[in-house]
Amino acid sequence: MSDKWTNTNFGNQLGDSSDAHSSTGSSSSNEPTARPANPPLTSLLPLSPSSLLEISVSDPQKHGEGTSAFVNYLITTNTSLESFSASQVTVRRRFQDFSWLHKALTDEYPYVILAALPGKHRMEYITGDRFNSEFLEKRKASLDNYMKRLAKHPLIAQSQILRRFLESNEIVPEFIAKNGQAHVFDNLSDALLNAFSKIKNPDPKFVEFKEHLDKFQETLISIERLHAKLIKSETEFELDMLEFGSCINTLGLMETQITGPLTDFGNILRNLCTILRERINHEDLETLRMRDQKQTDHEELIVYLENHRLERERVLNPQRGGGGIASFLSNKLQEIQGVDQERARQQKILKLSGKITELQEAVQASDDVSKAFNREMSREMDFFEKMKLHDLRRDLREYAANQVAYYDKCVQYWDQIVPIIENIRIED
């Protein structure tokens, strides 16, 4: 996999070729609500060594009461990118603002593998209500991880959508408007161009990639399931340890001769529970969900074109048959109405020929888009693989370091218990 990314402009097949990601320098909070018309797909452009974009999410705050209550989060951005108005900017955003960002980026960059936005309602986070400290801390950590992933992406990091989210005082509720320019696809109202159609000739490279992602996701789901069991058992162990420490303290109150040592013993057990809780809170893994799709337009247009070709052949060569009872009844009806069959036939041929020409252009355009999308997706897959390995290595290192730190503290606390017990003296 090459580390070299080249700038690719797909030109007319994607509409306006103006660059939507250029630096603005003099940006302000009073920005237009719509983006430039149909910016081209642009391949991954690595940030220069002097560029910096660091984003952190912190300080969740609750506002309002009852059904109108909501939480917003402080977002702090440190950057050297010239498109930002300052090297450090801060804003507060609600969860719905993060949803706006994710939807806008998904619409703007359909070929980019975006990090999954944390779910609006994560039941495993909720122990009481959605405003308790545990839920807010875990939601904050998930959003912080989400923003850091966006900042790492070389194209998203330079996106005007992201910049607007990070420094504008307000975000309009409507999503960024799509370009109103008419494309040849818009004129094909009777074509079945939708995301539910199955790709008939998928690219083997993408099939292999999807199979890899499916297996990777299954593995992550298994890890998450096992991790949940481990967390549950550790939480139960923590509760047992707390109860054990409480019993030791109670015993110390009853056994006045050794109250001090037993109290120290109970306090150390509580300390062990504290570090166990810190360990449990630290071990919070997020699963990765992927989505793909694009080639459908091209293949559906080919089918649509072939249907029109067959229809034209039937009209040009009626003696070959075809058309069925519906065509026969239609011709008879035209005869009854006094329609000139030859003239009607010529008009239909001209109409179908024009439609076929339009569809041929559409097929070529969709083929260009599909190939361009494949090129971008190939680069995106390379970037995803690199980031996946980077994240896995980081997470495993952090997990191992957390285990070592936890057991080191356990050893220290248990070492403190040994002399406490040995120094207990019972008077005759």
TrEMBL record:
Keyword terms: Cytoplasm, Lipid-binding, Membrane, Transport
A GO biological-process term: piecemeal microautophagy of the nucleus
Cellular localization per UniProt: Cytoplasm; Endomembrane system
Domain of life: Eukaryota
The protein, known as: Sorting nexin-4
Membrane-topology descriptor: Peripheral membrane protein
Lineage: Eukaryota, Fungi, Fungi incertae sedis, Chytridiomycota, Chytridiomycota incertae sedis
GO molecular function, one term: phosphatidylinositol binding
Biased composition (Polar residues): 1-16
Alphabetized InterPro entries for the sequence: AH/BAR_dom_sf (IPR027267), PX_dom (IPR001683), PX_dom_sf (IPR036871)
GO cellular component: early endosome; phagophore assembly site
Region (Disordered) location: 1-43
UniProt domain PX: residue ranges: 51-173
